[in-house]
Amino acid sequence: MGNIADLKEQVLVEEFFGKKFKIRFVEEDSGKAALTHYMMLHGHKEGEVYKERAVSFYRDYLENKDGEGITLHEAYEAIQYSLFDHKKSIPFPEVEIPKFKFIDLFAGIGGFRLAFQSLGGKCVFTSEWDEQAKKTYYANFGEIPFGDITKPETKNFIPDGFDVLCAGFPCQAFSIAGKRGGFEDTRGTLFYDVAEIIKRKKPKAFFLENVKGLVNHDRGRTLSTILNVLRNDLGYYVPDPKVINAKDFGVPQNRERIFIVGFRSDLGIKQFSYPEPENIPVAFEDVKEKHTVSVKYYLSTQYLKTLQEHRKRHESKGNGFGYEIIPDEGIANAVVCGGMGRERNLVYDDRLEDFTPITHIKGEVNRLGIRKMTPREWARLQGFPDEFVIPVADASAYKQFGNSVAVPAIRATANEIIKRILKNA
């Protein structure tokens, strides 16, 4: 084969997600995930978990690309050539000398990671099943998350010795009729997988996030079971969970989420206080686009008429459903997936001068200046910095930010967690 220097290859997201290479790993993501995890953790002991899988995947990748056989050693050398170029192009590079280490489960686009990394943490494992979210995660952090966390082969990649487990797991009911509501009763739910990882890896702390509705989900039995497992079955100190609102931490969004934190019992931590509201005045104008946005974000006259009629029907029934326009001095409603998340967060913006549609719409572009928020405005409502890359189409971007966490609220809580585990190190 040619000189090994010819194999220098920056592993680009469009290659891994765009082209379909005819190799045996093309439909299975552990190779891509292991490779990018290994590249980001090279030189750290946690990286050794990924080395064998990363090198074998890269060898097959290069053989398919160049049509020549190469050895595992040559593939390993090729990875070394790629390390610098791979890391230098990432908007949010990892911490080289970390204060602590964490894993990012149900990672989405990396809201937890942004928060913990900004406090000096190094992420040593990520998992996320959504392919579009993986693209965004890769573009910003240089890692492709592993996939289905319920699979043993995925769990086997989780390294030992990390300090904090982070998870924004989906809310599911448990089959606990006539049972004590313990660990075994959570089987078949995603919380079971989180609890299983905590049980196996015994991190110093965990930070779980969920929708506010978890408080009353299944008449409170779901939350009660979760706390029973964490406190009694797993033996962690778990203070009472708290519902935290994003608007209290510097972003103009009324978004309430339940936070659950816990500490391993041998650390001797017996007190924990969730962060108090920062009382920073915020309004939508703080995140509003500074320049005129594309006409595609402005509602058509027909769409606006449909929304007005829909709200009028509900008002006649005494319901409060319908679209809402957020004034510049107002606070946005929670950004969520689906059309309602956008329809309840419309804004006025009279800066548009060219009303020529660039998408297929019914009617004309409205002249009232009513538009949807842009994906970048949603990103700012969630506390993502403008350096955060949005490499996906708008539809995926809205879904991703709607599913994400409010980074400032996560960071404020994470800071309280880290102060305690470092003090007890």
TrEMBL record:
Alphabetical list of InterPro entries matching this protein: C5-MTase (IPR050750), C5_DNA_meth_AS (IPR018117), C5_MeTfrase (IPR001525), SAM-dependent_MTases_sf (IPR029063)
| Protein name as it appears in the record | Cytosine-specific methyltransferase
Catalytic residues, per the record, are: 171
Task: Enumerate the PROSITE patterns for this protein.
Answer: C5_MTASE_1, SAM_MT_C5
Task: List, in alphabetical order, the Gene Ontology terms for molecular function in this entry.
Answer: DNA (cytosine-5-)-methyltransferase activity
Supply the NCBIfam families for this chain: dcm
Q: Which organism is it from?
A: Belliella baltica (strain DSM 15883 / CIP 108006 / LMG 21964 / BA134)
Keywords of the record: Methyltransferase, Restriction system, S-adenosyl-L-methionine, Transferase
| Source taxonomy | Bacteria, Pseudomonadati, Bacteroidota, Cytophagia, Cytophagales
One Pfam family for this entry, by name? Answer: DNA_methylase
Task: Report the enzyme's class at the first EC level.
Answer: transferase
